[in-house]
Amino acid sequence: MAAFPTVLTAFVLVLAHLCDAQQSIITMNPPTGWLTLPTNGTGRPVEVTCAPPSGANVFVSVMSIRRVLHRNQAHQDLAGAARSSSDPNGSVEDKSRDNVDKSEVAGSIQENFIKFTIPQADCRDAAMYTCEVIYAEGTEGFTATNSQNLTVTVEPGQLSMTPEPRLNEYQYNASVLLRCIGPVGTVDDDTQVEWIWDYQESGGFFWTPVTTADTLEDSQPIPPGNCAVNQVNTLQLYVLPVDSGRTYRCHVRVIRGGSSVPYENLAAEYRIVSVLQGASKADVGAIVGGVIGALVVIVIVVILVYFLVIRKRRNARTEEVDPSKPADEREPYPYPSNNADVTYTKSNRFRDVSTLDFLPLLHMEPFIQMPPSFSMLFVMISFASYSDLTHSDGICSKIKPATWAIAMAGKNPMELEREEAE
Cis omega before residue 360 (within 30°)? Predict the structure, then answer.
């Protein structure tokens, strides 16, 4: 007799597959089949109830609840009940011990329902749940099934922003990297996350979108069993004075099921206090230092040239005086006492134009009366000509004609004397 229920059950199964049946009744809590978890991923309860078709006077032999996971399409048995000689009421049995950490079952075939409960459901429990009922009505057997989808999502969380570098005052056109990080919720084929950057002027009320492209730097899932991810999004700025007092912020918009939901209340913000005008203090200091250094070098060069000219002039004066002659026979330098009635003696200092020594001319009154700029040019060219007396192949030999032309332009009396002699 014990084998009779088993034979009857097998017979009902065969008939069920051969005959049309009504749908079983499956109910789920949450009713919409959409489970939304908080940002921290803490699970919430999910209940799945399975019952025979309504209004039918049937003899139910088997009831079961199973699911197909979204993430890997795995088939899992969760709960089941079957009548037998030892259990004519068909008590429910939990079959999910290998698939669900904690679960609860209730009901029986005698009570016309079975229920499977997940106290702390998370993203791993997103699946298509199916209720199956095998029953007989009169002499015919049927299998009734019905399914409901459970979607699990996680909402975005509070974001945070880190500026690199963080300063109270930025230099003109300084590079500032704004890095925004935080949980952005679920990201899958049905859910996308869009990052938004905008700014608000100091004392303003409206936010202006930032046209500069932002960069998604990183995206990491939040373990364990959580379908949410942490993301890092960056915005590169080169701040200008118009950025002084501006507040930059980042936030996300979740696009799911054709709808877009902004989460501005979870935005992160950073205010740029001040940006310097124009060049930085460091740049101004470098410019001023360079100018002062250049002036110091010029002054040193002028002083060196001046002392070299004086020394050369003194050496030339010593060479012109022959100490072996009596003082009254020495040929005097043509130093005029005044500008009137000046007489000059003819000297043998004039050789050819290419070897003319102009150093004695430096002591003459007409040279002193030259303009300062012309006098300095005369000093430098004369010194170059004198130095070239012992270096006839030097570069100074190339400017002797120019020196002679300058001397002529200066109306030097010694030149006039030589012209008269010729």
Answer: no
Measuring CA to CA, which residue among 152, 150, 137 is closest to residue 43?
152
Cα–Cα distance, 391 to 73 (Å, whole number): 99
pLDDT at position 309 is 77
Asked if residue 339 lies in contact with residue 311, where contact means CB atoms within 8 angstroms, the answer is: no
pLDDT value of residue 218: 74
What's the pLDDT tens digit per position in 133-166? 998 887 788 899 999 999 888 889 999 999 999 9
| Cα gap 31→418, rounded to integer Å | 124
pTM for the whole thing? 0.56
pLDDT of the residue at 23: 84
In this structure, are strands 92-94 and 104-108 parallel, antiparallel, or unpaired? Answer: unpaired
pLDDT in the model for residue 168: 92
Nearest residue to 133 via CA among 208, 216, 36, 61? 61
Residue 389: what pLDDT?
A: 41
Q: What gap in Å lies between CA 248 and CA 272, rounded to an integer?
A: 8
Locus of tokens 């200092």: 349
Compute the distance between CA of residue 332 and CA of residue 363 in angstroms, rounded to an integer: 13
Residues 6 or more apart from 214 whose CB is under 8 A from it?
195, 197, 233, 234, 235
Q: Are strands 259-262 and 208-209 parallel, antiparallel or unpaired?
A: unpaired
Q: Could you please report the per-residue DSSP string of 370-403?
A: S-HHHHHHHHHHHHHHHHTTS-TTSGGGGGHHHH
| Residue with tokens 């056109």, as numbered in its chain | 173
Dihedral sign for Cα atoms in the order 56, 62, 65, 69: negative
User: What is the secondary structure of 266-291 as a DSSP string?
Assistant: G-EEEE--EE-SSS-HHHHHHHHHHH
- Residues 144 and 149: their CA atoms lie apart, in Å, by 17
Determine the Cα–Cα distance for residues 196 and 248; give it in Å rounded to an integer: 11
- pLDDT, mean of residues 62-75: 91
State pLDDT tens for residues 116-140. 999 988 888 999 999 999 988 877 8
